[in-house]
Amino acid sequence: MKTVYHKADSRGHADHGWLNSYHTFSFANYQNKDRTNFGVLRVLNDDTVSQGMGFGTHPHRDMEIISIPLEGDLEHKDSMGTTAVIKKGEIQVMSAGTGVMHSEYNKNKDEAVKFLQIWIFPKELNVEPRYDQKSIKEGEKINGFQQILSPNKNDDGVWIHQDAWFNLANFKAGNGKNYMLNKKGNGVYAFVLKGSAKVGDRIMNERDGLGIWDTQSFNIEAVEDTEILLMEVPMELPAYLK
Fold first, then answer.
1. Distance, CA of 209 to CA of 182 (rounded, Å)
2. What is the pLDDT of residues 104-151, one digit of tens each?
3. I want to staple 232 with a disulfide (CB 3.0 to 4.6 A). Which of 106, 165, 174, 221 is the partner?
4. 60 labelled binding-site residue
């Protein structure tokens, strides 16, 4: 088993007033040659957007973009004609593919929005753009893994154009479970949303990240009540990036 550990306070940070963002990997003005990606996981941003503010309309292409709200509501609009609001207990995915314009706004007047913005390199370029969002609250599991994303259209959660699986691990203190990887050659980036846990041989606290690869499984044991996002992704980059 190989690992790479990123403490919460080692992340890049940008405070734009309306946006307070922590970057696990290189993004915008934060550039770190040792932290550009974990396999096909390219961006993991921990964003807080102030009341009435947001990201104006801007373009993307050839990227799988996932948003997971942690607090508050976020309004989404795009050039595909989608207008939607995503909130805690939901997951949003947008395949940018051949190109899409979109905006994300916090329309709340009394609270900030906190959400994870995640980008994954797709298997192939120029796919047809698409949007989807689903409730993940209904499938919540205590002391187990809840799948919220996969490559398969008929699986639980949303799907993307990549051999990736996301799970939420929600454990009460003292409980744990072994995670089995879905595909050979994949790795898992574990990101602690709250609490603390022992992941493999590492004690992790809130907003710490741990990349794990060259293994078929690893164990998670909660030190206290803990919620962890597990992002299993291919470690080999697509041919178009080589």
1. 20
2. 999 888 999 999 999 999 999 999 999 999 999 876 889 999 999 999
3. 165
4. yes
Structure tokens belonging to residue 189: 């980036």
Residue 180 clears pLDDT 80, i.e. is over it: yes
13 known ligand binder? no
Q: Is 128 annotated as a binding residue?
A: no
Full domain range(s) for residue 100? 2-241
Phi-psi domain of 200 (left: phi exceeds 0; alpha: psi -120 through 50; beta: other): left
Question: What order do you get walking across the sheet with 73-78 strand by strand?
Answer: 54-60, 100-105, 73-78, 83-87
Instruction: Give the predicted TM-score (pTM) of the model.
Output: 0.97
Contacts of 220 (CB under 8 A, 6+ apart): 169, 171, 176, 177, 178, 179, 190, 197, 198, 199, 228
The total of structural domains in the chain comes to 1
Q: Are 67 and 113 in contact (CB under 8 A)?
A: no
**102 in a known ligand binding site:** yes
Distance separating alpha carbons of residues 68 and 150, to the nearest angstrom = 15
